[in-house]
Each structure stands twice: as C-alpha cells, then as structure tokens.
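Severity: low
Component: inverse-folding endpoint
Summary: output formatting inconsistent between runs
Steps to reproduce: submit the following structure tokens with default settings.
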C-alpha cells in the first residue's frame, strides 16, 4: 500500500493540534489504498504543543514528531518534516486548519493520476485580512514576478501534495535562506492549482506581524532575483547622462550670459540626493552580501532536540 506523509509545522499551537488531527484523520480514513503518517514538527514552541503532539502519538502510531531546539521558522520546519517523510507522497499543511483537510482527496487523486507531480492550493480571495495588508501582498507578487524568472503565484499557500521525485528535488535545495514559494516553483515539475476561499484560523493567532511579512517579502526577492543589484548600474548610468547635460548647460550659460557662480542651495540638494542614492545602492549590495555570508557559513537549517512517535521509541537528539 502507498504511504502519504502529512507534514505539519507547529509553533505555539497547543489549542490547534488536536483539532487538526481530528479534522485530518476524519478525512484520511476515507482515502482509498493509502496509509497516512503525520509528521508534526514542533518549531521550538514555548507552550504545550509538544505535549499535545506526544499525546496524539501515544494514541495513534501514525503520528510522528520532531522537536526543534529553538524556533527556526516555518520554512525550516517544512524542510525537516519533508526530510523525515517516508511517504510516496508528501503534503504540507498548517495546523490552524486554514488549509482545509477536505481538499486532500482531490489533491491525492490529482497527483496519483500521473499527469501532475504536485497539486497545490491557492486562495482566490483575502477575506478577513486587513485591506492594507492585501494591497501590499498584491504589490509584492507583482514586483517579484517582474524581477524573478521563477514564477511566484499570487495567493499560493504552502498547502500542497507532492510526489516523491518532487520532494527529493525540494530536499536537494539545501539553502539556508529558504523561501519555499520560490523553491517549489524553481524545482519545476507539473503543478495543478486548486482554488479555495480564504479560511480563518481555528484557534490561536497568526505568527506573522506586518513587519515580519515585509522582511519575508524582501527575503523572497533577494533569494529569487538579482535584479536589485542592477539598480545601482542603471542609476549610475542615468545620473552620468544627467550630469553631462548639466555640464553643457552650465558652460553655455556662462559663455552666453556669464555670472553662473550661484545656486548654493541647489548644490546642497543635489549632493544630499546623490548621497542618498549611493547609500541606498550600497544597502542593496549589503543585503546580498549578508545573505551570501549566512549561506557560506553552511549552518544546518534546523537542530533537533528530540523526535519520536510512529509506534517507536523517543530519541533525544
Ligand atoms: N509556524 C511555524 N514556525 C513559525 C511560525 C509559524 O512552524 O515560526 C507554523 C504555524 O504553527 C502554522 C503555520 O506555520 O501551522 C502557519 O502559521 P500562521 O498560521 O501563523 O501563518 P498565517 O496563516 O497567518 O500566514
Ligand atoms: Mg494560519
């Protein structure tokens, strides 16, 4: 019988874990010819998440868990889960039921059909989200798709079901700065998009503040595009051309009318403006350098504290 691994990243989700398990297993018993294993990844939670997961594991040998030594972020949690998945298929789902388990049979059938290697979910609305956040999100997708050759689909959730070859390809992307929306797209394969409406969280609250989302967006752009690096060259060229015409203008004015040694305030404005542009460009360069620095260190993507479940023993990492 085939095996489906469901990877579930959890960070401070004690209230949501059991709800998720109940909802998901209600759907999974209806899946024909496939066994299911759950891999809960406790991303360094400080509440009772791990305890709740261990309780599930004691009841059901299909539940396995990994627990990080600290919070490494959802991207790292997904990577760890996929790395430990043994399934012929692997799905990634949020624990807050914003990824409706009801879609699992459709996703599985799509991938099993053989035509697609991956079935992914995108939401077609952003109901229940602050309008300003939706606006920024839409702008982000516009910008990144202009800048990057890798297509980033607007509204794409991380909820997706993949075939084993695709999972292996994702696991070969061992970069430290992980931007999964880009990684899933970069590895290629044939993806079918399944559309759904936005679902509100079942319990707890979102871990994403507006600021965190901004940083995430910038990380995504830096990870999948080098276009910002070209900004410095383009701006440099533009200002050289402007400077050339300015010089010609000043010389002509001096020769024809004379007395052009005025304009101290405009000079100050120009110097400030150009200094700003220069610092901005150095900043862009710095961002790429910083990412390269972190990448070169070759640090592990996550560190396990303990793991267990699946009817086996607990292991202390
Ligand atoms: N999550 C995680 N580590 C983090 C932040 C979030 O594993 O540092 C998990 C979280 O438990 C949830 C999923 O990632 O299962 C999505 O998080 P959240 O619901 O807060 O994001 P949103 O749905 O608001 O985008
Ligand atoms: Mg959520």
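Observed output (run 2 of 3):
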């Amino acid at each position: 019988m085939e095996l489906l691994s469901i990877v579930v990243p959890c960070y401070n989700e004690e209230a949501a874990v059991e709800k998720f398990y109940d909802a998901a297993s209600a759907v999974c018993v209806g899946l024909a010819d496939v066994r299911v294993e759950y891999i809960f990844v406790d991303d360094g939670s400080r509440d009772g998440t791990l305890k709740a997961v261990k309780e599930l594991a004691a009841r059901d040998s299909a539940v396995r868990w990994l627990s990080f030594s600290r919070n490494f972020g959802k991207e790292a949690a997904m990577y760890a889960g996929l790395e430990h998945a043994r399934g012929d298929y692997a799905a990634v789902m949020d624990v807050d039921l914003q990824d409706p388990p009801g879609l699992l049979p459709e996703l599985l059938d799509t991938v099993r059909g053989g035509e697609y290697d991956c079935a992914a979910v995108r939401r077609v609305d952003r109901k229940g989200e602050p309008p300003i956040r939706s606006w920024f999100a839409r702008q982000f997708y516009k910008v990144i798709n202009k800048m990057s050759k890798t297509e980033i689909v607007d509204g794409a959730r991380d909820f997706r079901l993949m075939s084993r070859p695709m999972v292996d390809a994702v696991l070969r992307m061992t970069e430290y700065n992980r931007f999964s929306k880009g990684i899933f797209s970069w590895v290629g394969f044939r993806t079918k998009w399944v559309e759904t409406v936005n679902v509100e969280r079942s319990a707890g609250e979102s871990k994403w503040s507006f600021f965190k989302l901004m940083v995430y967006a910038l990380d995504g752009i830096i990870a999948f595009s080098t276009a910002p690096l070209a900004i410095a060259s383009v701006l440099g060229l533009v200002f050289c051309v402007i400077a050339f015409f300015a010089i010609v203008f000043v010389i002509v004015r001096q020769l024809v009318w004379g007395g052009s040694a005025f304009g101290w305030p405009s000079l100050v404005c120009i110097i400030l403006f150009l200094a700003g542009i220069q610092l901005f460009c150095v900043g862009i360069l710095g961002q790429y350098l910083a990412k390269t620095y972190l990448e070169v260190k070759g640090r592990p993507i996550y560190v396990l504290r303990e793991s267990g479940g699946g009817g086996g023993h607990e292991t202390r990492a």
